[in-house]
Amino acid sequence: MIAYLQDTLLLVVTCSLLGLAVGSFLNVVIYRLPRMLEHEWQHEAIEMLAEYLPATLQDALKDWRLEQQKLRGSDAGAIKRYNLATPRSSCPHCGHLITAIENIPIVSYAVLRGRCSHCKAPISVRYPLVELITGVLSASVAWHFGFGFACLGALVFVWCMVALCFIDLDTMLLPDDITLPLLWLGLLLNVGDVFTNLSSAVIGAVAGYLTLWSVYWLFKLVTGKEGMGYGDFKLLGAIGAWLGWQVLPVVILLSSLVGAIVGISLMVFAKHGRETPIPFGPYLAAAGVLALFFGKQLAALMVPI
User: Fold this and answer.
1) Which residues contact 221 (CB under 8 A, 6 or more apart)?
2) Chain centre distance of CA 99
3) Which one has a higher pLDDT value, 204 or 55?
């Protein structure tokens, strides 16, 4: 028993430290991925538009591209890359490159007292908050699931939920780059019955997507407006693929309840109008994490066996 507790404690500590480090990386993902997608969409739009431009305007577009290359470097190879690894993180106020010692999760923020070491500009408290949330969730996964594929899978699941939650809060987007691989990975893991059996996972993926898809179209037919984005469908489908169709009523109920409370609170206290959009992804993500830990118990309470 003592050896088991020691091994479990070691796993919890290891996963919590890993979670803090991953949380630091998730801050990069949350900030950069939407911008990477925006740059990609702009490039695709320019390329599509160029096909329909007159020859003279196409020549002007080529000249503009060459001028942009000259501004960024002497040749195309010198154009600065922008992805999750390049360039290095820097202070948005003064451009100071963040050193390794300044990038220790939570500790560096506390030592620097929440300010840039170079220009003393304030650093958003959300950076250590994301790290802390990811670390706590990772430790909880280790304690709940113990050693095995379930622990590894659950870590990936909660990390993706954290990233999607904050990206949606910032941009009202749930990127396919996260939701779709998450859905397929859930189905793949459940081939081995890691969280549920494969048939429940497949039905969960389909039912999760179609449930919100149906709500979307019903709302649009009645009001003529879009009530949510397609990313919400995919996120609920991914949750269903991981945890099975049985937990979907719990996820939908919890996310809708919290979303309604937050929405009403914003209208009453923050004077948000009814037309002000509110992201639904964070509530789905939070409900998905709760279902990961307590889904079967909550489902049993809703539909007693």
Assistant:
1) none
2) 25
3) 204
- Using the structure block, give the residue that is written with the tokens 């600065």: 80
- The pTM is what? 0.86
The string of pLDDT tens digits covering residues 69-100 is: 655 544 444 446 778 888 888 877 887 788 88
Residues in contact with 140: Cβ distance below 8 Å, sequence separation at least 6, in sequence order: 293
- Where do runs of H (alpha helix) occur along the chain? 2-50, 55-72, 107-111, 126-145, 149-171, 176-189, 198-223, 230-243, 248-269, 281-302
Tally of residues, the chain: 305
**CA distances (Å), 17 to each of 22, 74, 174, 206, 304, in order?**
9, 43, 27, 36, 39
pLDDT in tens, 149-168: 999 999 999 999 999 999 99
Q: For residue 218, give the nearest of 227, 209, 207 by alpha carbon.
A: 227
Q: How far apart are CA 160 and CA 19, in angstroms?
A: 12
